[in-house]
Amino acid sequence: MRYTIETHELTKKFALQKGFTDFFLHPFRKDEITAVEEVNIKIEKGELFGILGPNGAGKTTLIKMLCTLISPRKEPLM
């Protein structure tokens, strides 16, 4: 069956911004946060669905990736 929306292990990670002290003490540390991790969705045409979760769960990030406003690839670390 063909789906209108289908994802397979969709993941998004963002680099954490370092403060001056962190940059000075640990210049090569690569800190990142995972906003969305391995999401699998299959939505058929005409199907109604919702996304529920607490604050900071990655709901908005997931919708932005599905609407192609942001890339699902990891942002480059600074």
Oligomer state equals: single chain
Helical fraction: 10-25%
Strand content: 25-35%
Which strands sit side by side, in order, in the main sheet? 1-2
Q: Tally the beta strands.
A: 2
Provide the succession of SSEs.
Answer: EHEH
Count of structural domains: 1
* Overall outline: elongated
Fill in the keyword field for this structure.
78 residues, alpha+beta, two-stranded antiparallel sheet, 2 helices
Element layout with pairings:
Layout (H helix, E strand, L loop, with lengths): L4 E11 L4 H6 L6 E12 L15 H8 L12
Antiparallel strand pairs: 1-2
Structure description:
The protein has 2 helices and 2 strands, in the order βαβα. A two-stranded antiparallel sheet has the order 1-2. It has one domain. The mean pLDDT is 85. The radius of gyration is 16 Å and the shape is elongated. It is an alpha+beta fold and 78 residues long. Helix content is 18%, strand content 29%. The longest helix is centred in the C-terminal third of the chain and has 8 residues, at 59-66. The protein has helices at residues 20-25, 59-66, and strands at residues 5-15, 32-43.
Structure in a nutshell:
This protein is α+β, with helices and mostly antiparallel strands. It has one domain (5-66).
